[in-house]
Amino acid sequence: EVQLVESGGGLVQPGGSLRLSCLASGFTLRHSSITWHRQTPGKELEWVAGITPDSFNKYYSESVEGRFTISRDNAKNTAYLQLDSLKTEDKGIYYCKYDQYKGQGTQVTVSS
After folding, report:
1. N or C: which end of the chain has fewer CB atoms below 10 A?
2. d(C-alpha 32, C-alpha 30), whole Å
């Protein structure tokens, strides 16, 4: 059974940082591309970042380019999303995805 478990969200002030984790099981992470997405109330799921299996290629949406960093540790079956210089508009539930699967998400709130 494919499972993705996100963690690391929380409340942070504007300009702050968080590190999100995505623990994967039930499939071979090292063979798989992983993407991160976020959702805010009233909006569709927004793609944020993606990483290829070998970490050679990393992709970011324009809204987070230069502030977020995607990475992975295949030995730990875990993908990460480092969120720096957070803005209020970055708030939402963040999900990692593999193929059609996604986890339950982790909440990020940016507020002073």
Report:
1. N
2. 6
